[in-house]
Amino acid sequence: MYVVLVYDINQEKQGQKRWAHVFKICKKYLTHIQNSVFEGEISKVQIEKLQQELKPYIDKHLDSVIIFKSRQEKWLDKEFWGKEEDMTSFFL
After folding, report:
1. Percent of the chain scored above 90 by pLDDT?
2. How far, in Å, are 52, 65, 85, 86, 89 from residue 33 at the CA level?
3. Is 79 part of a structural domain of the chain?
4. pLDDT-derived band of residue 15, with 50, 70 and 90 as boundaries?
5. Average pLDDT score over residue span 10-39
6. Which of 5, 21, 37, 88 is most exposed, with the fewest beta carbons within 10 Å of its own?
7. Is 13 within 8 Å of 57 (Cβ atoms)?
8. Residue-range definition of the domain harbouring residue 55
9. 91 in a domain, yes or no?
10. Are 86 and 79 in contact (CB under 8 A)?
11. Is residue 92 part of a domain?
12. Are 7 and 36 contacting, i.e. CB atoms less than 8 angstroms apart?
């Protein structure tokens, strides 16, 4: 499946360290496209692994992670408003 993952890590309670861990883990599974936004093809098993790896670094009272799912990238329209930096343009 194709996903877009966005996260917001609060700076309280060592937020900068938690943010760094979340960023590094997400980068293992998905392509970094903008600030706290990742996208890419991923299996259900990989999503479960990603979630388990992120769990220790996400404070449920301060942070949020949102995953938008689609069957395939072709079912998702992407528009750029403003500066266009399509870091996924190298994909065929």
Report:
1. 63
2. 22, 16, 8, 7, 10
3. no
4. confident
5. 93
6. 88
7. no
8. 2-73
9. no
10. no
11. no
12. yes
By the 10 Å C-beta count (0-12 exposed, 13-18 middle, 19+ buried), 71 is classed as exposed
Cβ atoms of residues 81 and 25 within 8 Å: no
Task: Name the β-bridge partners of 64.
Answer: 8
Please report whether residue 81 resides in a domain.
Answer: no
Q: Spell out the residues 6+ positions from residue 67 whose beta carbon is closer than 8 angstroms to its own.
A: 3, 4, 5, 47
CA–CA distance, 68 with 90 (Å, rounded to integer): 22
User: Is the confidence at residue 92, as pLDDT, over 50?
Assistant: no
Asked whether the predicted pLDDT for residue 78 surpasses 80, the reply is no
Number of folded domains that form the chain = 1
